Amino acid sequence: MKKFVLCASLWIGLFLAACGDDSSVTSPSGKESLSTLTDSRDGQTYKTVVIGKQTWMAQNLNIETEKSFCFNDDSSNCTKYGRLYTWAAAMDSAGEWSSNGKGCGYKSECSAMSPVRGVCPNGWHLPTKAEFETLFSAVGGDSVAGKMLKSTSGWNFAKASGNGSDDYAFSALPVGYRDGGGDYTYVGNEATFWISTEKSDEYAYAMRLIYRNDNADVDYRPKFMAFSVRCVKD
């Protein structure tokens, strides 16, 4: 009888410990949590999140580099949204931090071997097309990935709301982008993230979320445009 009471007490203790205070943010699956990383290059700290078997940055990259921009050339937007990068900048075409993406850019077809660190912190890399597809699968498929990955505020365009549920703490913000002419557009409407996978010498793939849609899609975009960057852990 004493052994039974002892076992029962141990089981209850373990149960209560499992249900105790936890500072991490969990997703519907109960396995995803938030942490942080500090970029040793400039000391900036970013939230990170585990989704499925991948660890993603939960904020947009904000390290300053050539061919990176703040929306509307306003530094406060870099603080809020992170920076926008051309594909060459995202790939670290200059080879400042790694050699894998060196020389990759507009009108320059390259055959970089994955993973490509690119502009990402050490130990992280620019995601491939396949890695974004894995992310979509982990949150329920591409037909609902937009809703799951978008932040719960800010997605408002033409007086219509398209906020996400942010169930997995990915917290994608609708920063918009910079086009090839230097114009900034679609803030509140769209979030687009560069992918290391190349389509041709003029196009590379990007992942896009739009305010009016619950889905997420991957398509190729001109390399000279400037989009956000989310890094994934090696």
TrEMBL record:
Membrane spanning segments where?
none
Q: Which UniProt keywords apply?
A: Signal
Q: Signal sequence span per UniProt?
A: 1-20
An example of a Pfam family matching this protein is Fib_succ_major
InterPro entries documented for this protein = Fib_succ_major
Q: Which PROSITE patterns match?
A: PROKAR_LIPOPROTEIN
Which residues belong to any copy of the Fibrobacter succinogenes major paralogous domain? 49-233
Q: What is this protein called?
A: Fibrobacter succinogenes major paralogous domain-containing protein
* Organism (species): Fibrobacter succinogenes (strain ATCC 19169 / S85)
From the broadest rank down, the organism's phylogenetic lineage runs:
Bacteria, Pseudomonadati, Fibrobacterota, Fibrobacteria, Fibrobacterales
